[in-house]
Amino acid sequence: MISFFIFAFITSITPGPNNSMLMASGIRFGVKRSLPHLLGINIGFGVMYLGVGSIIPLISEEFLVFLEYFAMALLCYIAFKIATAPTQILDGNAGGQPWGFFRAAIFQWVNPKALMMAFAGATSYGLDTVTAAVIFTCTNVICGVWIFAGAWMRQFLSSNPIRTRMIYVVLAFTMIITMIY
Fold first, then answer.
1. Is 93 part of any domain?
2. Looking at the domain assignment, is residue 91 inside a domain?
């Protein structure tokens, strides 16, 4: 169980689509408005893990290939949206909308890194699916670090839209890179 916890921690904290989006949300909207996104990731991943662990024997190779290409296209679209997001830093309840709970939860089903984490965890560690899903759900809270990092950067970025654009492009590029490995 300790090796699974380490696996869950490392895969949760490293860069990927969820963490890039959380950092961008922290920059643009701050911590408080980004928390539903984080909660959606945590709960959505746990539910997705339960689903993956339960249906692994039933998934056809053709569906996995379709899901892979669909997820890559979706990630390219989201990366584009991050890279081209407005550079103004929003205060309080100003315009714009961060991802909410349900959108973030549903996204886990097409997030290649999250799916890889679930498939690897469900097939490699021998834990029952429910225990593993609970461990991952609790461990994914560490993703909140990315929101705080983004919120911390707000002050540095608020006075310089060029810096903000550069950070958004780096985050988008990081999302694209996660598809390669």
1. no
2. no
